[in-house]
Design a protein that fits this description.
heterodimer, A: Butyryl-Coa Dehydrogenase, subunit A, domain 1, Butyryl-CoA Dehydrogenase, subunit A, domain 2, 4-stranded antiparallel sheet, 13 helices, B: alpha+beta, Nonspecific Lipid-transfer Protein, Chain A, 5-stranded mixed sheet, 5 strands
Chain lengths: 417, 132
């Protein structure tokens, strides 16, 4: 079903990008995601898995370059175009969309470092890659540390008593990394590179971290089992272990003296992208429910002819439009400001993930028993949507941070724009 | 005022630097290709300059322009930037530099400024500025 776009200012290029992304989402992502969802995590990453077909086709289309600027070979998308493509891809599969996004994180880190050598070494080859063999992951959380790892402003974030499980020490011109990252590292067990958060100064707690790029073929790097989980089963996640891994000093492009504000910038971006993808998932649930209700007869008439169903479908539609409007508005703000305003991205993430869960829930209810069946995609949407409330920072921790930022900065000075 | 004597000296130096970059490197053509124009809003002291493919302008004339990207920073930060002694991610994170305009354009712009950073020490010598 074509979903109307209320933006009357879309250019021909915007529309072409949208159409191509939707076709890819429908014809490639949706069927592969369904197959991966029914496989074990080990099968999903084994040789011959459709995951690799997806990665190769996505790279051939250039979708791994969505977030990257043109001068390094990225797609160079506008804020609106980024939102449009991520919405379409996540309509096809939220999990595979995240897989694609994190694949670019090491390259993106190289670009943000503004270091020519890192750009040459990591960003440009990644953009030139068309077979899906260069894949990043985002190593943040640890077995004992989930959203507290990003709890900027909370006393625990600065407490030396709260020790990271992955640390780096300087040794001449190198950093030596030891420890592990959690099972929740997206792309963790299939990655060629890791954008790694690692504690450097334990006396500062988590605020004493740094960020580096780690090629996963270095001696001392090993990967754990892929995680078995309720939703986004098409997204590989799993542990990474570091045993005295040595990287050149220049790979550590963020050090503790500016780690905290950089983490805020990462959250500003990641939460925004999550809101764009959540819009796609909210829309997928709406589309499926609407189509079903226009065909399914109950009580002698189409479901859509029942006033209570019309009301519920309309609520689902309104949620999609809310998600889309909010994510696009925040994209327009935070993709035009450096650094952006994190509270707006958090508002977008926490709102859209909640609304996409509500849409997926309502879709199951509208499909009735069929909604619980694997014959229909809505039960997968629901499982996928449930994960978004925890992914990239659980919504409660994020909201606390957003509230603290409001307390400190609101109203933002218009002159800062 | 950082290393500079006064605002007039800032204008003279950057007027020459921008003009040379546009005449002697592909900076101007790259600005044109990318549709890039930049407004620098400098603090401590307040100073405004604008540059596009046609060259720089300053003060009130610069304020009247509509740039693709606006960069805000203290003059000393700008001096360190042109000396290539500034960690850009750090300066952005700490809001020592803020940018308004498409992030993709800001990222594209930074490498374009490198020829100017290579020329800047010569201008520092010419204008008797500290390179610390």
């Amino acid at each position: 079903m074509d979903y109307f776009d209320a933006n009357v200012h879309l250019t021909e290029e915007d529309l072409a990008l949208k159409e191509a992304a939707h076709k890819f989402a429908k014809e490639v992502m949706r069927p592969i995601a369904k197959t991966l969802d029914e496989m074990t995590p080990e099968q999903a990453i084994a040789e011959g898995s459709p995951l690799w077909t997806f990665m190769r086709k996505a790279y051939e289309q250039g979708y791994h370059r969505i977030l990257l600027p043109e001068h390094v070979g990225g797609m160079g998308l506008s804020p609106l175009q980024t939102a449009i493509i991520l919405e379409e891809l996540a309509w096809g599969s939220f999990g595979l969309s995240v897989e694609l996004l994190v694949a670019s994180f090491a390259a993106l880190g190289a670009v943000y470092s503004n270091d020519d050598d890192l750009i040459q070494e990591f960003a440009i080859p990644f953009c030139e890659c068309t077979d899906g063999s260069l894949r990043g992951c985002w190593g943040g959380t640890e077995p004992d540390h989930g959203s507290d790892f990003i709890a900027i402003g909370d006393p625990s974030f600065y407490s030396p008593a709260v020790r990271s499980q992955c640390r780096a020490r300087r040794d001449g011109d190198e950093w030596v990394i030891s420890g592990q990252k959690s099972s929740w590292v997206s792309g963790g067990t299939v990655s060629s590179h890791c954008l790694l958060h690692v504690q450097i100064d334990p006396s500062k707690g988590f605020s004493g971290c740094g960020v580096c790029i780690v090629p996963m073929d270095l001696p001392g790097v090993s990967k754990g089992k892929p995680l078995n989980k309720i939703g986004q089963r098409d997204l590989n996640q799993g542990e990474i272990f570091f045993d005295g891994v040595r990287i050149p000093a220049r790979y550590m492009f963020v050090e503790p003296d500016f780690y905290e504000p950089i983490l805020d910038m990462f959250l500003t971006n990641a939460n925004l992208w999550m809101s764009m993808a959540s819009t796609g998932l909210a829309r997928a649930a709406f589309d499926e429910a609407f189509s079903y209700c226009k065909e399914r007869v109950q009580g002698g008439r189409l479901l859509m002819e029942h006033p209570s169903i019309q009301q519920r479908i309309f609520t689902m539609f309104a949620r999609v439009e809310t998600c889309r409007a909010l994510s696009r508005a925040v994209a327009d703000l935070n993709m035009n400001l450096s650094p952006g305003f994190v509270e707006y991205s958090i508002a977008a993430k926490t709102t859209t993930t909640q609304l996409c869960l509500e849409n997926a829930h309502d879709a199951i209810q509208l499909l009735g028993g069929n909604g619980l069946s694997r014959e229909y995609p809505v039960e997968k949407f629901y499982r996928d949507a449930r994960a978004t409330l925890i992914e990239d920072g659980n919504n409660e921790i994020l909201a606390r941070h957003g509230g603290q930022v409001l307390f400190q900065t609101y109203p933002r000075n218009p002159a800062a724009l | 005022m950082a290393a500079f004597k006064d605002a007039a000296q800032v204008q003279e130096l950057f007027g020459e630097l921008w003009t040379t970059m546009i005449r002697e490197t592909d900076f101007g053509s790259k600005l044109r290709e990318g549709g890039i124009s930049i407004l620098f809003e400098i603090r401590e002291p307040e100073f405004t300059m604008y540059v596009d493919e046609n060259g720089p302008c300053f003060g009130e004339e610069a304020k009247g322009k509509t740039p693709k990207v606006t960069l805000r920073m203290a003059l000393n930060t700008a001096h360190q930037f042109w000396l290539d002694k500034l960690n850009i991610p750090k300066a952005l994170a700490l809001r020592h530099i803020t940018a308004k305009g498409p992030v993709q354009t800001v990222l594209k712009l930074l490498p374009l400024l490198k020829p100017g950073q290579q020329m800047y020490p010569e201008y520092c010598k010419k204008f008797g500025l500290s390179m610390e």
